[in-house]
Amino acid sequence: MTKIPSNRRINGTFGAVWLDGEKLADVDSFEAKVTINYEDVNMAEDLATHKKMTGWSGEGTLTLKKVYSTGANLLGEKLKEGKMPTFTIVGKLADPDAYGSERVALNEVTFNEFTLMKFEQKTPGTEELPFAFADYDLVDLIERG
Q1: Residue 50, pLDDT score
Q2: Which fold has domain 13-36+51-140?
């Protein structure tokens, strides 16, 4: 096993997010993950429980430094009108000292909730926007060398 230099560990400081093509300057953190759905399968003369994949679901969280009313601007009035917009999110992580960069595009993004207002004394604000997505594209991946 080859020892990996510590400076090759990718640093989240070099992460960026685009929402419908607009780069967000106020990103604090970003996470997107896929959960695989399985059905249990039992086989004759076998005590183990086997699994059959039946689909997947995508979800994540976009956390922003509270500079703008992002959630309310994206969803507030549309939600009251009974309209649910969908979005595209692209996330990129490109530390110049790492072995490469990764980029993923999330499609058919729907936000699950938004905060109308939240504050705490002597605390810089953040806005958390949990979301779901129905498709993704692995645009760039960091390959094992």
Answers
A1: 98
A2: Pnp Oxidase; Chain A (2.30.110)
